[in-house]
Amino acid sequence: MTISGLRLTAKPPLTLDDYAELARTAVDPDVWDFIQGGAGEERTLASNVQAFDRVRLRPRVLSGVARADASTTVLGRRWAAPLGIAPMAYHTLVRPEGELATVRAAGAAGLPTVVSTFAGRTFEELARAASSPLWLQVYCFRDRATTRRLIERAENAGFEALVLTVDTPRLGRRLRDLRNDFRLPSGIAPVNLPDADYSSPADHGRAEIDPALGWSVVSWLRSVSTLPILLKGIMTAEDAERAVAAGVDGVVVSNHGGRQLDGGQATLEALGEITSSVAGRCPVLVDGGVRRGTDALAALALGADAVLLGRPVLHGLAVDGERGVSQVLDILVEELADALVLTGTASVVDAGPSLLDGSTAPSVRLRAPTPAPAPVAEPRRSSGTGLRKEELHRSVSAPVLDTMNFLNEITGRFPDAVSFAPGRPYEGFFETEDVFTHIRRYLDHLRESGVSDDGIRTAIYQYGPTAGLIRDLIADSLRKDEGIDVPPASIVVTVGAQEAMLLSLRALFARPRDVLLVASPCYVGITGAAELLDIPLREVAEREDGLSIADVEAAVREELAEGRRPRAFYVVPDHSNPSGSTLSAQRRTELLELAARYDLIILEDSPYRLVSDGEQLPTLKSLDRGQHVVHLGSYSKTVFPGARIGFVIADQQVRDDSGATGLLADELAKIKSMVTVNTPPLSQAALAGMLLASDGRISELNTGPAAHYGDALRVTLKQLERRFPGAGRDASGVSWNEPSGGFFLTVRVPFVVDNAALLRSAREFGVIWTPMAYFYPHGGGDHAIRLSFSYLSHSEIEEGIARLARFIESETRRGR
Length: 816
Hints:
Layout: E1 2-3, E2 6-7, H1 16-26, H2 29-36, H3 43-54, E3 72-74, E4 77-79, E5 83-85, H4 99-109, E6 113-115, H5 123-129, E7 134-138, H6 144-157, E8 161-165, H7 175-180, H8 201-208, H9 216-224, E9 229-234, H10 237-245, E10 250-253, H11 267-278, E11 284-287, H12 293-301, E12 306-309, H13 311-342, H14 399-413, E13 418-419, H15 434-448, H16 453-461, H17 471-482, E14 491-495, H18 496-508, E15 514-520, H19 524-532, E16 537-541, H20 549-561, E17 565-571, H21 585-598, E18 601-605, H22 620-623, E19 629-634, E20 645-649, E21 653-655, E22 661-663, H23 664-673, H24 681-693, H25 698-701, H26 703-723, H27 726-732, E23 735-736, E24 744-748, H28 755-765, E25 767-768, E26 770-771, E27 784-788, H29 794-814
Parallel strand pairs: 5-12, 6-7, 7-8, 8-9, 9-10, 10-11, 11-12, 13-25, 15-16, 15-17, 17-18, 18-19
Antiparallel strand pairs: 1-2, 3-4, 14-20, 19-20, 21-22, 23-24, 24-27, 26-27
Helix pairs in contact: 1-13, 4-13, 4-28, 10-11, 12-13, 15-24, 18-19, 18-23, 20-21, 26-29, 28-29
């Protein structure tokens, strides 16, 4: 095996230590010593690693944790894991692309990078390459104007925080560099600083870094930048308390990688007392000695919000450039995920001291913060304050709420890519001027119905009834098109189907132990709504041939046995998003029978029926004789996406304590009155005009679009067959399903599909898709992608599948 010119006689590197061994032979000895060396006899350098070596974790069993959530939020930004890249000078020492490769790898992993003052690539090019947060590590120079310009340049480039290094009033005595008389090779320089002689890092540091910094520097930084400020180099509780009093936004527990005071504590040994004294008032990060995922978990257990990784990043970069850094990060994140599951820790926020064997763990000094001396600082400017995301509802940090943001970001960065991501209608069916025709048609309808001009003006310009203006037209259309015969009073017109989901969940889920069952993979809208409302989810995994009703019943029985109430089951029975599967007629009957046996509400969401070719199976609601189905509807796929009109059919009887009865729809309307007040009448008017034009028969209105989407599906399947012919498909590990309609299909691949793979696909091959992992609430779908073909022309599909094939082939080779 060969990695970037290194001939490996052993197996591929599997640990960070493996990468260190390979890196040692990949760089010049003097450079290796500069990277690896510490101060003095390197006792502190060694103790950083040894402190983690002594820690023992306590495994927990039968925890029910199948897949842990490794994501975290720091300074209002979500990180894929509690891990960032520590600032290190001159990445260009080990690779010409230097920090560019590091930043790209970090972005692909969803992790931040702290860029050194002494970076070898410009802030601007790093910002262009970044897809995750960049922070600037600041050395404060004697010439404050130089420091100010450095900060302004980084802030203008889009950097998001400042990390002031506070432990270098003078550089530590680094014996390896002194013995080697280390000089930077020709062409290596800090390109973001003014021209000067930087050949000797030690000499430059002694001459230019301000040795007399005091606490007033925090106030000075506030005067030149609005960015959050963290202090790096905090090693005592007293300094941490003073930092908080000075108004900093975070502290980094660090001994400079053992390169300053030799004989000082290991960072892990200092961590517990610092997190105790900070007591959650600002984020606490830690670096130094992290070499395994279990090390990261130990730091989290002692109260750290995240860890920063230093030398191993340069090892990966030296061995294999960007790919080497990616693999180093992947190893650490994967090890952390394993450790979380094996200790029964559902998420990183659940990590605490109980995970650690008390006989081996550094002590946590639990005490009240002591008064700190008043810092010489001005009052903190309002622009530097704000809400801490940790104090907001936990849902805002939930991965499900962040998935589409990442997808939109990728789409915006690569506008020339062919995108199979958006599940939206083809725009060729819309004419701008038709909007006015539709509204006029509805106004004429009102006039013909006897509504006065004053009444029409009120209907269009005022708020209107909460439950909706056009319920009668929707009920008529449902009767003609779907065989759903319900009174208009049982319908609530909503702002898209998403509001219908939110209202239904809020009304139905009243008890802490009520559980929502979902078919998995599952549309992210329902899981996101459940997250917002603190409703627990239970997944029922689809099989190869779709959803098994026996599996649904087994899940219901298990929840009941655990003392929970399975309140509702969400399902997309027709051409589902994301898998494209359809529930058979027999399974529809079985599901309704199950709902009757267990008094289970079925939340039916079926937006793709009337834009699909051929005869469709009956909706669950049309078959519902016991009022067990709440039907969620949308006109976004069939008629007019921009109108944002959805609806919910809630004809269930609700009885109060006095015995009086009403409809569930009435209760939903009460909730809606506190959420959106009403659905915009102008949007309802445009939609109503389209219903009137088709006499309520949306199926006939969609004859052309349905044929188009059917053709697009067939073209997609044909191109997949062309690029992955049947003869070699089994060997390739590539396969796909063949839906009978809808906008989506699933492609299974032999490698892990994640955001990093998506970024490579967009950047290197010009094709975008959606990871199926987005649609598994508790993990899964790691080897599958969702393709949406609805928005693309046939030529775009052909080109896109060709690009996708090249990406899949490249990734398959990459994983070998």
